[in-house]
Amino acid sequence: MSRMRGTFESIVSASDAQSAIDIAAEAIPKGADMTSSEAEDVSAQFGKDSWQVRIKFKRQAPEGDFDA
What we know:
With about 70 residues, the chain is of the alpha+beta class. The protein contains two helices and three strands.
């Protein structure tokens, strides 16, 4: 079975970078493996405790998905 790659980006409210990543990670597909993550403080643009989070992940391709 092949693996699909994905990227998830979001702005979340959290007190620190690791908390922001933990919050955003709840939105990636169930069973996906996170391959990398980063959080950038964007409080100047979006208000106190705002973080832009980028998560890259891999997951199993659905049955019959030959392009993955």
